[in-house]
Structures are given as C-alpha cells and as structure tokens.
Amino acid sequence: MLGFKKTYVLPFKFEIPNYAHDFLAKQSLIKPLFKYIKRFLYISLKRQRQLEVSKILDKHQNILWLNFSAPSLGDSLMDLSSRILLSDRKIDLLTDKKNVLLYTNDTIFSSAYSRIDDVIKNSYDLVIVDSYSTRSIKIKNQSMPSTPFIGMYGYYNGPEVNRVLYSFHRINSLLGYIKSESEINRMAKSSISISIQDQAIIKKLTLSEKYITIALGGEWQYRSYKNWPQLIEKLLIENSKLNIVLIGSNNADRISKKILDRFSSYNILNCVDKFTFNQTAEIIKKAKLLICCDGGLMHAANAVGTKIIPLFARLEAEMQLTQSCESYSLYDPVDVSNILVEDIMRKYLEAISLDHNDLQAE
C-alpha cells in the first residue's frame, strides 16, 4: 500500500534525530505493514477517515487533544511539549488517569480530563489524536465521533525519534510552518506548570539555598543506575558539606534508605516517594543540578531549566535532549550502570565549575 511509508517517514519537511534507518534494517516489514493495514481499516470502519484534516486552521479555536498512546510521564511531557505553539487557542486534554494531575493547573490546557464522559458534553472544532492506534481512534470515536481530527504521530510507528522535536515540528507543520527550523530547534523543550499550592508545600521543606538533586530508581533495569552510593561517596569526598536531596518514586525506596544509613552524618535529605511529580519538579527547579538517568524527572528538569547530568543507555542523548537543555550527558550502549563513577564525577566538576562556591554549605 502506498501509504505504508507514513509509518517511517517524518510528516514534516525538517530532519530530526531518529532511528528509522536502523529500524527498517533490523526487522521484516511484514509486522509494521500488518499494523498499518489494521489501523487504516479500523479508521475506515469507524467512519473517521473522511474527517481527517491536514492543517490546523484559524477556525480551529476550540481543540481537544487526546494523549493515550505513550502513558509514561516522560513520554507525556515530550509528546505534549508543543502545546505552547497553540497558546492562542482554547485546548482541553483527555489523557491517562495517572497523567492527568500533571496538567491540572497547566497554563495552556484549559482543562485536563481522564474520562470520556467528561468531554462528551463539550463542543470542539478539532481533535488532535496522538497516534492512529486502535485505542486512540476508539476514544476519538467515542468522545467526538463527528469532529474533524489531525494526527500527531498518525501512522508513524516503530522507529525511535526525538519526541520533543517531533512534537514541535509536527505542530509547526500543521500550523503552516509559522516558525523556521532554527526557531523551533531553539525553543523546543518540555514544559510543566507548578501550582502555587505545590510551591507552598515545597517551601515548607526549608531546603538549603544550595543543593543538588539525585534521582534514584527507575522503571527499567538498564536505565536504573546501581552505583549511586559509590558516586555519593565521591561527591562527599570532593565536598563534605555538599547538600544532597534524593528524589524518585517508590521503586527507589530501598536504595535511598541504604544511602541514608551509610551517609547519616552528612547533609542528605530523602524526598523519595514523598511528593507528587509536580512537587518534585519544584524541588528540582530550586536545585543547582540534577544527576539522573533517562526518565520523567530528567524531562521535568529540562522543563524548569535546571542543568542536568543525565545517564543514557541504548538511546543516545540526541534522541532525548534539545538545544535548550543544559546537559552534561553520559552514554552506554547497553546499561547505565556500566557508566563509571569517575566519568560522572568528571562531568559533575565540569557542570559546577562556575557554581562551586554556591554548593558550599553556609
């Protein structure tokens, strides 16, 4: 089918980091072709194909954005990052239940919903559908069956891509290329809104004015660093008065307790699994630096403008970061735990070279 190339060709005229060549070289095209045909037929069966449009026009002032195909927090932040290009319109979000709190007080989304019943009563000029997966098309058909729609990823499926740059360039193309390639590349970054209430909660922590954050744990083993205690030991040898704040979700509980037991006489504050994602983003925002693995908190740091030392495995830095990120990245092709503590320390000293005095305890 002629349209099959949509599964691996970017739907805009600019190049961005992607692994389409590797994807096509390493596997048979039978499975992607079958998936494409399945999606094409499903859209037709649901009588949606005739409602697909190719541009976001001036008349599309009231928009519903569906975001379900990539439910992780980090992917959500990346895929929705380009919403700032639509700040002159009214946009509602319908997304996964666990992500909706990220956008409850968003400066762009007027409302964030997790239930189809909450949007059925509304009227929209256009629906932005994240991908043409059967789940997303089903939700579109259930919520706004007769409303025109455009696709963000559409049929594009399989090849890894820099999701932030994809999001920005895709919306820019749908708006008729209102910005140049260089403008988009400079401005592209994740964004997050931290409510006054969340800021007040973190303010009560009375954090030091001078600290770094370390994000522990991880959803995937190959993206979960195992040598944090050794790194922290090196950090404290370099500066025994260094203030460190540990952050992460409940999968970091064990390692955080191990660190606290080992370094109980130092200035280490454990905030693991104690705050919401947005509240943790506020902790990161106030920090001089975040050391982390590739994950949601890394994208939160990029959103709030905190410099990062990110550890990558399998996906290289160019696939996750943009020009607007202040990053001192490290990479291993297999597992982040293969990255040497000494190499992280080298990046750390480079990153704090201008802020060294700021990280001395008062």
Features:
362 residues; alpha/beta; six-stranded parallel β-sheet
What does this structure look like?
The protein has 362 residues and is α/β, with parallel strands linked by helices. It contains 13 helices and eleven strands. It has helices at 20-26, 30-45, 73-79, 117-120, 134-143, 163-174, 181-187, 196-203, 228-238, 253-262, 277-286, 296-304, 341-351; strands spanning 62-67, 90-95, 109-113, 126-131, 149-154, 212-215, 244-247, 268-270, 290-293, 308-313, 330-332. It has a six-stranded parallel beta sheet with strand order 8-7-6-9-10-11, with helices on both faces. The mean pLDDT is 94.
Summarize the structure.
This protein has 362 residues and is an alpha/beta fold. It is 34% helix and 15% strand.
Residues in helix, %: 25-40%
H/E topology pattern? HHEHEEHEHEHHHEHEHEHEHEEH
Q: Please tell me how large the radius of gyration is.
A: 22 Å
Mean pLDDT across all amino acids: 94
Strand elements, count: 11
What count of helical segments does DSSP give? 13
Strand content: 5-15%
Spatial ordering of strands, largest sheet = 8-7-6-9-10-11
Instruction: Note poorly predicted spans.
Output: none
Question: What is the overall silhouette?
Answer: globular
Largest sheet: 6 strands, parallel
Distance between the termini: 67 Å
Structural class: alpha/beta
